[in-house]
Write a structure and sequence with these properties.
Elements (H helix, E strand, L loop, with lengths): L3 E6 L2 H9 L8 E4 L8 E4 L1 H4 L9 H7 L4 E3 L3 H16 L5 E5 L2 E5 L7 H19 L3 E6 L2 H8 L7 E3 L5 H5 L12 H9 L5 H6 L2 H8 L1 H10 L15 E12 L2 H21 L3 E10 L4 E6 L7 H15 L5 E11 L16
Helix pairs in contact: 4-5, 10-11, 12-13
Length: 353
């Protein structure tokens, strides 16, 4: 029987800050940029989220929503160290691990148990190990595929555990709003609502031909997801092909200033990984529009991508290819790595941004 865990640490950055600084515990903590400049929120503690603070929000807006919020600069060295600690815990269960980010991963645990009850026991033990060894909480979704495991991990956050028995994927998804499915953002949700499709059950039961006529081929993909169908394997990293950071916005962003602010934070978030990776020659900008159209632009500047080149080239690339339409996601990646030591010293020439 196929069994997938989706493990998602709860408010990872802010939880680490609260763990390591007792004076922050129980207070609204915002990890991100300077609220007096152009910073954006990387993550917020659950105390801050009660005021409506969300990731990718301008820090100035976050401070307006919660004047008592405590703003903390991200400590990526610590976050990466904790992520490595988590990875070792995962490896005690399985080698089939697909990391999604520092705080999130899929695990294929299909060989560990014989029935759903045993998988639940394994998941509870993993949660206990994470709490005991990192003093953090994780939410875990257990299902027969990645889609449902991902949705399930978010079902009872924070510190949640949701098990979806094999064969009941469609039943589990049915009452949820359509926005809970991958690929359905605010604009797509509006289009579906205009067609009378508000819940996953309605999308799953819709006539396929009608969906294609109304939404194109993406309508069939949405319906597949609504029916709980996902055959993708858990894919472990076998070699470093790209280091990247991306943000999906809680709402579509269409103002240049807001998008440049997000881009600046992506640059800042990417720098710690840049320092640890081999020299890379190519910078990639990824933009996903409100209608789900995804555009990527790559630039190879003729030398390895240093911190300075990253900071200068990213906004230039954005200015060349953004078409003034609202975006729902933006990402930056570095690839085309140099396997020899060529260019390595240049990565550290310019210091912190």
């Amino acid at each position: 029987m196929r069994a997938i865990f989706h493990v998602d640490l709860d408010a990872f950055y802010s939880s680490i800050e609260q763990r390591d600084r007792p004076e922050l515990r129980g207070k609204p903590v915002v990890v991100g940029g300077d609220p007096d400049a152009r910073g954006v929120v990387a993550t917020a503690s659950y105390e801050a989220r009660r005021f409506g603070i969300q990731s990718a929000m301008p820090c100035r807006t976050a401070r307006r929503l919660c004047p008592d919020a405590i703003f903390v600069t991200p400590g990526f060295d610590v976050y990466r160290a904790v992520s490595s600690q988590l990875r070792e815990l995962f490896r005690e269960l399985t080698e089939i691990i697909e990391p999604i980010s520092l705080d999130e991963a899929f695990l294929d645990v299909s060989t560990l148990a014989r029935d759903q009850g045993e998988y639940e026991t394994v998941a509870r033990r993993l949660k206990e190990r994470i709490r005991d060894e990192t003093d953090l909480t994780a939410s875990i979704g257990v299902a027969a595929n990645k889609l449902v495991a991902k949705v399930a991990s978010d079902f009872r956050k924070p510190d949640g555990l949701t098990v979806v028995p094999a064969g009941r994927e469609r039943e589990f998804l049915a009452p949820l709003p359509v926005r809970r499915l991958f690929g359905i953002g605010p604009r797509s949700e509006e289009r579906l609502a205009a067609a009378g499709l508000h819940r996953v059950a309605q999308l799953a039961a819709a006539d396929s031909g009608w969906l294609v006529s109304r939404f194109g081929q993406v309508g069939l993909e949405w319906q597949r997801l609504a029916r709980g169908i996902d055959d993708r394997p858990v894919e472990p990293d076998r070699e470093l092909k790209q280091i990247s950071r991306e943000l999906t916005f809680p709402r579509d962003l269409g103002e240049r200033e807001d998008l440049l602010r997000v881009l600046s934070e992506l640059v800042r978030d990417l720098i710690p990984a840049l320092r640890d990776a081999p020299p890379g020659r190519t910078l990639t900008l990824k933009m996903r529009y409100a209608d789900w159209t995804t555009v990527t632009r790559r630039r190879t500047p003729g030398t390895v991508v240093t911190e300075r080149i990253l900071a200068e080239l990213a906004p230039r690339l954005f200015g060349e290819c953004w078409n003034e339409r609202p975006l729902r996601l933006m990402g930056l990646g570095i690839s085309n790595f140099v396997t020899s030591p060529e260019g390595q010293p240049a990565l550290f020439e310019f210091g912190d941004m």
